[in-house]
User: What shape does this take?
Amino acid sequence: MTLTTVFRASMRLPRLRSIPERATTVYARSFSSEAELKKTPLYEFHKEHGGKMVDFAGWSMPVQYKDGISASHLHTRANASIFDVSHMVQSRIHGRDGVKFIESLTVGDVAGLQENQGTLTLFTNDRGGIMDDLIVSKTSEGFLYVVTNAGCAEKDIAHMQSQCKEFQAQGHDAAVEVIQDQFGLLALQGPSAAAALQAGVEADLSRITFMCSAVLTVFGVPGCRVTRCGYTGEDGFEVSIPAAQVAQVADSLLGVQAADVKLAGLGPRDSLRLEAGLCLYGNDIDEDTTPVEATLLWTVAKRRRAESNFPGAGIILQQIKDKPSRKRVGITSKGPPARAGTTILSEDGTSIGVVTSGCPSPSLKKNVAMGYVQTVFAKAGTPLKLEVRGKQVPAQVSKMPFVPANYYYGK
Amino acid sequence: MAVSAVRKFTKEHEWITVDGTTGTIGITYHAQDKLGEMVFVELPEVGEELSKGDACGCVESVKEVRDLYAPVSGECVEVNLALQEEPTLVNSSPYDDGWIIKMKLSNPEELDDMMDEEAYQAYLKANSMDA
Assistant: This one.
């Protein structure tokens, strides 16, 4: 989850051709002047560290630093990087019926989570489409901690609040509190992320496994929620930090002796998540794709299927039986990379689908992409062609993740 | 053969240097800086006859694709195959190792319409408001 739009720096060279884009994707353009853009608590910090700032979902965000995107990508896979993800929406769901409330909007088994355990889940609509992907953690403090995408902020908050009102009207006890203004969010990602963060906390991080969280004092800043998760396929953490102290924590992480930590921007964040086979909301999933088509069926919990009581359950459960007509797949190729919007052809040249994300993979030295194809072509190894600028580029369906995940499940 | 050490520039942010009747062509420092890290360079065929202004390939960065245009008329006589393996040469060395194509000029007078270094810098400055 997490990135909601693909970055696009302001470019006005004559006769510039932009990468094909889907209508649903909100590319960052220079529509807004710098002054109109929202700023995270790290805005000045990014500028001081050479961040190249772009408009991303209405936020001024670093797309890269001086290192360049590939170098920063590879650094994350080998060491550790800090990503500012404070533009994402952090909320709390309070109340005795908070779990029941969030389950009424999503496909996840939140009731079945352990204390301080979280899960990736989906808001679905009545048509079985995906409204957003989000992470819900069941905290030991009695509320649910929810992180949703920046690009869906308005829609998600309105959805949660209006649904909550109805829920309350039915006599239930739940309330939504958006805490984004009080807390920044840093993602620390990479194989040495744990060593870097351990330098700033007393608790033993080896006891916090993938998707679990704890409230800790981090580099002297109390009240930080540390969740072992991320959007790169690497081990790592997302740390929710009181807004005034985010820069202090980022600075401390950059200075640790135990690991070589660097800042990374949205550019490598996008190529890392794509190598990890993770969906970008607005590109790879949207309100017209179902969890079945998106091969995110694992998020639709067993108990929830049995109860059949999430939005769009009828359609989604029927589609599980009937098999969907199209499926999200991974695709690899050489030569010119296929971008979102590229037509996917079968070997005989028939159009069978479309690419939803694509880039050259810095780790694999070939192009990786994901897209939707007719289900008969979804098997790994199936040869395909990609229509890039009028030429047909040979490609094949690949298993995802493209780069093996490196999550921490305990010793 | 006279060697022209003078680099000429186009409004499309391409450059050309001419040795005899052969022109070496690439994109400017400014262009590669704006485009960012190159990931792919699509080259024309050697032997292709091009007229000034013809699309003859493209450079693709992490975030953008930009067409290349023949700055002069003539035959494409060589392409920089090193860019197929290492497209970032366009970034690291836009005026040397990152050259893109060589053309046999059929109408050298076309060079007269191009900008010299000073004029190009002035052009960049004048257009910086919308760059």
Summary: Chain A touches chain B through 25 residues (CB under 8 Å). Confidence is low (pLDDT under 50) at residues 1-31 of chain A.
